[in-house]
Structure formats: structure tokens, C-alpha cells
Structure of DNA-binding transcriptional regulator NtrC:
Amino acid sequence: MPTGSILVADDDAAIRTVLNQALSRAGYEVRSTGNAATLWRWVTQGDGDLVITDVVMPDENAFDLIPRIRKARPDLPIIVMSAQNTFMTAIRASERGAYEYLPKPFDLKELIGIVGRALSEPKDKRAPAPKSEDFDSIPLVGRSPAMQEIYRVLARLMQTDLTVMISGESGTGKELVARALHDYGKRRAGTFVAINMAAIPRDLIESELFGHEKGAFTGANTRSAGRFEQAEGGTLFLDEIGDMPMEAQTRLLRVLQQGEYTTVGGRTPIKSDVRIVAATNKDLRQLIQQGLFREDLFFRLNVVPLRLPPLRERTEDVPDLIRHFFAQAEREGLPPKQIDQAALDRLKRHRWPGNVRELENLARRLAALYPQETITAAVIDSELAQPVLPVGSDEPRPDESLGAAVERHLSTYFSGFEDGLPPAGLYHRVLREIEYPLLTAALAATRGNQIRAADLLGVNRNTLRKKIRDLDIQVYRGGT
């Protein structure tokens, strides 16, 4: 039977009663209070073997109290409960030195299990001393159960250098999570460097990753530092790792195994001190079976797997996300916007094939294009009724002009509506559909040179930059 004395602090009497009963049945001695002052008095008297406390107390916030408890009794495990359920709550709990963070409501069996582990764990293995940093921004938004589990995992990873593999569909925020791991982790003083494997020509990937020496290949007129060197002491984010060619995979594996690399054309090994975070929207196990991805590299990268759910699996987060993006747009100079409940309900019913990125782009369009302050369901219906490409036997013809192809597509699109009239706003929707591939093609043709791409398109360079940012276009800046 477990033994130990538990101190419980929560201003909700009903929650205290439930916790008292559950912990007592599990064999623990329990004392509970509704304020921080009593909890502090018990701690300083040497009472209790473990603390369970809510964040918001009537007389003091637990995040202010925990550092004092940790200083007075550094071996006393603290479990933090909270109904706030944000990413920063989980991070603050970890940074202040909490043993574990539990978002309300939580499973009592899970709590009992955590209490047992905390009390049986050696004292020198318990939570590290708290840090003094305070955080003002929230990089990740959402209170759904799926996001709560991600927050808890991230909080545990912050003070480690473990390699993380983030999987998820495009637009789920994989780079955002990688940046959060860096910005709130032990390497925050270093540099965060991101590289997208899908955006770099295959013959340049090794040079991009490891750098090259002068004269290593045609066009290598000077020595160039690679991304590993740029990220030294920080974090290297390898996005779309499934698109990495096999020869580059072999070199990456060698770096992970030996902790050193050589530049292209170089002979002297260079020690590497970077944290690796990889991401993919592909099934790497399937690529392994197809002989396209090294199994040994997969296991080296997949130390801590982290799956980001698509937005359709956490639609309860849509209201928080759209308001967050509206606030972000307002800070950038766009008009303030609100959204009514019917419009929120319509957003929650959408499938979101583009995930959070699609929602963010929608928020920016709504802020920029619509004069009304409150966005209604009619506006959302208009925006989400996007044209879809026809399928079946209506295939493009090799000799068909762009204008003829567009005309054929629109004819099919119009015919899909009973009265032959799609929702209002068609002009802007069609322009947006053609704009992304047009800009992407121009940037690819000019190898990411935005001055040449702007000249090719016949637009101002600043206009092109704004379009790249608004459309979230990944730009590879290569040689010209």
C-alpha cells in the first residue's frame, strides 16, 4: 500500500473533496486547503511529501509560490493543476520547477500514478531548479485535449537535447513547434536554423547542410558555411525530412552517430553541437519499405515522436485560433475584426484541408478585404466555397492555352451549382488560386532571386515580398 503525506491546495472545495477521497483510497495521508498562505505554512513547517496545487489561488498565484517552495524544500515534488490549459501554462509549470502539469479536468487514475512515480523517484532526479524567465507571447494556441498532450510533452522536452521527430499534415504548425522547442529550451541563446529539404535541388543539399570549400565544385568561388555550422550551439530544424536524397541521408546519419562532419571538398572533421528537430508530412515507415529512407536514420531521428493533429481533429480550437489571428493581423496594421457565433459554427464544420495555415490565411483575407467589423456566417460561406478542380475525363489538353484551360475549368465549376451561380467573391478566390502557383513558378525559375522574380512578373519587389509572406511561400535562395 502506498504511503506518504500529500498537501492539496485548490480554492474549489468540490475539487478538494474529490482529491481527498481519491488519494485517501490510494493509501495516502491528505491535508487540503483553499489558499496559498496555509500551503506555504505547512511547507515551511516541513509537512508533506508532495504538493498538488492549482495555479490560480485567492491570495497568490502558484507560479509565484512554487519558486519559494523549491528554494525552501528543493526535494519536494510539486504537481500543478490548471483550468487555463495553454501552452504557456505548461511551460511556466516546467520552468518554475513543477514535477508534472495536469490540465483540468484530468483522470484521477493518471494523477494517482503520477503521485506514485514522484514519491518513488530518487530525490536527485526530480525537477530542476526554476528559472526566472517570464514569457509574454503564446506561440501555440488551443485548449483541446490533443493540444494539451502536446503541451505536456513539450514542457518535458524543454530542458533536454533529445532529438524530436514531428509528424503532421502540411499546415499543422510543425515549424512553430520546432521554434517553441528552441525558444523555450536550454538552447534558446543559440541560433534556430531551418532548412526545407523539399525546396532545395538534390545536388545542393549536402552543400547546404555541411557547407563547402572554395573550389569544391563549379561556382564555389568562396567558402560557404552550412546549416550545421550556422546552428552551432542551437537548433537545426530539418523540415520535410522525407524528401532528403539517400546520399545526404547517409552523411546525416554519420553526423548523428559521430558528432562531426566535413564540408563538401573539405578534409578536416568539424565537431557538431546542435539539437536536431526533424519534421515530415509523409509516412517514413512506408518510405523505408520502398527503399527511399534509411531505417537506421529513422530510428536516430525518431527518439521522441510528436504527432501534430490536423485541424479537423481539434475543431474546438478554431474560435481561439481565429481570434488569435485577428489580433495578430490587427497588430500588423490591418483593421480589427470580430466574428459572430454563427460564423464560428460554420468554421468548425469546415474540413480544413490546409489546416491551421489555411485558417490563418483566411483570417488575414477577412481582415484585409471586408469592411465590416463583425464577420458573419454569410461571409464565411462565401470564402469557404472555393473552386475545385474538375476530375474525371475532363483532362488538360497539351496544346491548350492557359485562358482556354481556365475557361473550361470555370464552365465546369459554374455548372456544379443549381442556379449556375457560385457564392459571391469569385473574382478574388480565382485570383488567389492562380497567384500561388504563378509566384512559386517564377521564384523557382529565378532560383529564389526575388529581384529577378519581381522583374519577371512585372511587379514591385516589395509587393512580391508581401505576397510571399501572405501566401506563406517557401523560398529557396540559391545561386543564380
About this structure: The chain has four domains: 5-137, 160-307, 314-384, 422-480. The domain at 160-307 is CATH 3.40.50.300 (Rossmann fold).
